[in-house]
UniProtKB/TrEMBL annotation:
Organism: Cyclotella cryptica
Residues annotated as domain FAD/NAD(P)-binding: 37-152
Phylogenetic lineage: Eukaryota, Sar, Stramenopiles, Ochrophyta, Bacillariophyta
PANTHER family attached to this UniProt entry: SULFIDE:QUINONE OXIDOREDUCTASE (PTHR10632), SULFIDE:QUINONE OXIDOREDUCTASE, MITOCHONDRIAL (PTHR10632:SF2)
Gene3D superfamilies: FAD/NAD(P)-binding domain
Name of the protein this chain belongs to: FAD/NAD(P)-binding domain-containing protein
Amino acid sequence: MFASVARVTLKAAAATVLGTGVYVVSYPVFCKQRSEKVVVVGGGSAGIGVAAMLQNEGVKNVTIVEPNQTHYYQPLWTLVGGGLASAKNSQKDMKDVIPKGANWIPKRVESFEPDSNKVTLDDGSTVEYDYLVVAVGMQTDWDAIPGLEEGLEKEDSGVVSVYHPKYCSKTWQTFQSIKNNRSFNAANPATFLFTFPPTLLKCAGAPQKIMWVLEDTLRGEGKRDHANLTFCTPGASMFGVKHYSEKLEKMRVERGVHAAFENKLVSIDVSNKIATFLDIKNNSNVKKHYDMLHVGPHMSAPTFLRKSPLSDSSGWVDVDKHTMQSTKYSNVFALGDCTNTPNSKTAAAVTSQAPVVVHNIERSIDKLPLDGFYTGYASCPLVITRNQVLLAEFGYGGQLAETFDRKNGKFPWKFIGTEGYLQQRFFFFLKETLFPYVYWNLWTKGYWYGTNGPLKPNVVRAMEEAASVSASR
Ligand SMILES: Cc1cc2nc3c(=O)[nH]c(=O)nc-3n(C[C@H](O)[C@H](O)[C@H](O)COP(=O)(O)OP(=O)(O)OC[C@H]3O[C@@H](n4cnc5c(N)ncnc54)[C@H](O)[C@@H]3O)c2cc1C
């Protein structure tokens, strides 16, 4: 009887702290113990976090299938590329982040067989499940640009990318050697190109975050006029959300950064340091010389996922964009970069999705209708100098969802506001210091809920709010 009471909740304290209504604190002392077997495929940011939350909620039979021995906190890579963090702080041994009590199978999933509730591994063995959570992330297609792999591997090529644990360190090293090279000066400036891909990209802000940090570094050392910087993108603006794009465009003009809009990188001539772009408007190729070329690589759904019965025609796991349940199999859920939900693909989005997935799995086990609701929240801390961040936060359709907004933000954080130097210094502190700490110490242990901090959000309440928002439109 005592156990079936399900959990001890501490609503009042959280409600007082956040002031926005009823929240349920995330530390149930006694949870309803559930014996259903949940298999989580992928031990990245989403897989580890959701597995830990499931365990904390009393879903004890959790298995993680993840082939890599190393787990990465990828948001740090931009700072590594800008010389603001060390690559070693972005990684830990996988065994050290697998939640206590969870079973880890260090193998790759080859295929899904949802009709018989099992997955097949790369050694041919199979794993059965009652519930499946797919969290396999995105695939980086390094070979999509001829010359890119060669350039990244060649030490003095000038070709770099923060989208890889090895090449993010190379980014800072290459930048430094160009910055300190005396043959570059105001009369003979070095050329830096920063490209954005024509595909979906995780952390779509990263290709320009690294640009802003490096630009600020040159400025700080009195060498800004020793360099020409150009942001090259197939798009027609700086960012996907108008509110932030306008701010970034203004900053671009003020800081003398060139833009090559509607320009798509198609190949790299590594020996001659020439990048070829397709000028989309004029449908012609343009060749640009570079001293340093930072590439935002092509990305896609993982190849093995594309042919799976769980996926849509583009290869992403087909889920309901609010409940995160598969549109085809009721005992399958997915979250993170691998789903077809139209949110910006970030770890911040994952922190909002994970409690929804956990809640809905519990509802499903209890044979109740799913009422956990993801609103599309994502955030992108746009690092704009070596100590400032423009914090972009938005939901589905680019609707602003700013935690610190003076009018619509979350109490008590709303008093901080979003504009101003001190605010941007504070957001930098979050990005550089707090979030990495929280990631390793709370998120991977299932005790961090994004904008709600360590307090578990009432995802059902979010659904009621969202329903009333759409009804009032
Ligand atoms: C340079 C950079 C900067 C970023 N900056 C930010 C930021 O500032 N803020 C932010 O919120 N987000 C940021 N992100 C995005 C964030 O890191 C991702 O959105 C997040 O990691 C997504 O988590 P995921 O679990 O879906 O994917 P991942 O963390 O990539 O994990 C996927 C996992 O699935 C495993 N896997 C793949 N295939 C299989 C298979 N067949 N079988 C089993 N396992 C498999 C992989 O090995 C991997 O461990 C950044 C990313 C990059 C690269």
